[in-house]
From TrEMBL:
Residues 441-468 have a biased composition (Basic and acidic residues). Gene3D superfamilies: YVTN repeat-like/Quinoprotein amine dehydrogenase. Residues 16-80 form the DUF1899 domain. Keywords: Actin-binding, Coiled coil, Repeat, WD repeat. PROSITE patterns: WD_REPEATS_1, WD_REPEATS_2, WD_REPEATS_REGION. InterPro entries: Coronin, DUF1899, WD40/YVTN_repeat-like_dom_sf, WD40_repeat_CS, WD40_repeat_dom_sf, WD40_rpt. GO terms for molecular function: actin filament binding. WD repeats lie at residues 89-123, 139-181, 187-228. Belongs to the WD repeat coronin family. Residues 407-468 are annotated as: Disordered. It holds the Pfam family WD40. The keyword Cell wall biogenesis/degradation does not apply. This is Coronin.
Length: 545
């Protein structure tokens, strides 16, 4: 009895080291040569930034330019060699240090520069034919060069900028003025240059890493510091909010100059929850967090590898998964938003590596290996969409709202603009042709018949849709209203869109064939069960009290 009690206690207190995870086998897959962007003149600046910004329509990259700063905006499908005379956005008088796409408008991008200005640009929907030199808006407020910009995650047209004058300025772009010189708020709480900025999920808090080796948690509207970390064993360069986990992650160096990551409790920044040394290299570490999968990616500047981990709210907090390795070192990195991923290939993240030694931009996809080609609901929960949750004035008045979520399932909501199928008709009761036979039929078979009838109704509704309604819109692209291509680039872009449309239609046809076979099989089984019931005498079971 004593031995039994000991065994039970031992089993209850033992926790296995092996941790089950659906993302344990995630692997990185680099794009083929023809799907990369070649001959791109990537900047030689030594500033510690991403130098690349991506959305589902364009990829923007900071480039070299004589007599000022410039960056390129390339359509996402225009891969291959870039024309050396390709138009640029070149309105800055100094080197461009940071670029960020508006999260709620894929045709608006912000840039900041050594000329102490921030500029907002409108990108035309058609291909660029000449350089853009006139911005939509110009923000003049910083006394020294501006090194960082960040859009607010839920409020429309709110932009944060950080300069070497140690100030963070908040701009409201919901004005008709082309030149703004008065920000709505100024955060003057730092004693040195701000190296990194990050928002929590609803944008009510701002975390910063400063060159004075401190991490600060700030209420941007009240302009007050809520928490401050001055932990001497960790010198932070980049800081990142980990979604709704109420935790911060920072990358930097340890006391012995090893590259290090640290995990912090949002409500107590006195001591980190976790510290982990990575290696002795000198390149900066860029952290990226995917709140949908709770995965953390660590990208080293000057490295060719990408480490990835899984974050959990309880100990051990950080679980190492794997590492993508490449012999090509990256100078900068871009990240595709979730709504631009290829869900049919189980792609959960996509990087764009800037490789200046080869003038190359190489996409790297993070893929969950799955055999099924159908939509995987468990790895694609509702994610942040492209619509703002509130206006700029609402946020300035103190309102907090989380992001508007959408589904990545093809054909659902604003993520995919394909025409929606009408909802299936309400379940109709079967006619009482043979009441006695239906009374003897088990409830499970009645349910089967009803499901088959619903599926038939849905197929009929799909057939009733006009054919041109299925082909009119494809990935937000109107086939009939688009003029014929006039240049080689337009023809190439049209070709890629047609290939994507063909692939999508093949997937839909395969799904429909599988559904038809399933319905035929269910109908056959149902007929066989009904035949058996007619061939054998009914058994009447009588129970006595």
């Amino acid at each position: 009895m004593l031995w039994r009690t000991f065994c039970i206690i031992h089993v209850m207190s033992w926790h296995p080291q092996y941790r089950s995870s659906k993302f344990r086998h995630v692997y990185g897959k680099a794009a083929s040569k023809e799907k990369c962007y070649d001959c791109v003149p990537i900047t030689h600046s030594v500033h510690d930034n991403h130098f690349c910004a991506v959305n589902p329509h364009f990829i923007a990259v900071v480039t070299e330019c004589a007599g000022g700063g410039a960056f390129l905006v390339i359509p996402i499908h225009q891969t291959g060699k870039l024309d050396p005379h390709y138009p640029r956005i070149c309105g800055h008088k100094g080197n461009v240090l940071d670029i960020k796409w508006n999260p709620f408008n894929d045709y608006v991008i912000a840039s900041c520069s050594e000329d102490a200005t921030v500029k907002i640009w409108d990108i035309p929907k058609h291909l660029l034919t000449k350089n853009i030199t006139t911005p939509k808006k110009e923000l003049l407020g910083h006394a020294r060069r501006v090194g960082l910009i960040e859009w607010h995650p839920t409020a429309n047209n709110i932009l944060f900028s950080s300069g070497h004058d140690y100030k963070i300025m908040i701009w409201n772009l919901d004005t008709r003025e082309d030149v703004l010189s008065n920000p709505v708020k100024i955060l003057d709480v730092h004693k040195d240059v701000v190296l990194s900025m990050s928002f929590n999920t609803d944008g009510s808090l701002l975390a910063t890493a400063c060159r004075d080796k401190k991490i600060r948690l700030i209420d941007p509207r009240a302009r007050t510091v809520l928490q401050e970390a001055s932990y001497k064993s960790h010198r932070a360069n980049k800081v990142l909010f980990l979604g709704n986990m109420k935790k911060l992650l920072s990358t930097g160096t340890s006391r012995w100059n090893n590259r290090q990551i640290a995990l912090w409790d949002q409500n107590d920044l006195s001591v980190p929850l976790l510290e982990e040394d990575l290696d002795g290299s000198s390149g900066l570490l860029f952290p990226f967090y995917d709140s949908d999968t709770n995965m953390l990616y660590i990208v080293g500047k000057g490295d060719g590898n990408i480490r990835y981990y899984e974050i959990s709210p309880e100990k051990p907090y950080l679980s190492y998964l794997m590492e993508y390795r490449s012999h090509l070192p990256q100078k900068g990195i871009g990240m595709m938003p979730k709504r631009g991923l290829e869900v049919s290939a189980c792609e959960i993240f996509r990087f764009y590596k800037l490789i200046p030694t080869k003038s190359l931009i190489e996409p790297v996809s993070m893929i969950v290996p799955r055999r099924s080609e159908s939509y995987q609901e468990d790895i694609y929960p509702l994610t942040t969409g492209s619509q703002p949750a509130m206006t700029a004035q609402e946020w300035l008045n103190g309102v907090n709202k989380g992001p508007l979520l959408v589904s990545l399932r093809p054909g659902s909501g604003p993520v995919n603009s394909l025409p929606q199928l009408p909802e299936s008709e309400p379940r109709v009761k079967s006619p009482d042709l043979n009441k006695s036979q239906r009374g003897r039929m088990p409830p499970e078979e009645m349910e089967k018949k009803s499901e088959i009838k619903d599926s038939r109704n849905q197929l009929k509704e799909e057939e009733r849709l006009p054919k041109n309604e299925h082909m009119r819109l494809s990935n937000g692209f109107d086939v009939f209203e688009c003029p014929p291509p006039k240049t080689e680039n337009e023809l190439l872009q049209m070709f890629y869109r047609q290939q994507e449309e063909i692939r999508r239609l093949r997937v839909l046809l395969n799904h429909r064939d599988v559904k038809i076979k399933q319905l035929e099989l269910e109908l056959r089984n149902l007929n066989m069960d009904t035949g058996r019931q007619h061939g054998f005498p009914w058994l009447v079971v009588v129970t006595f009290p």
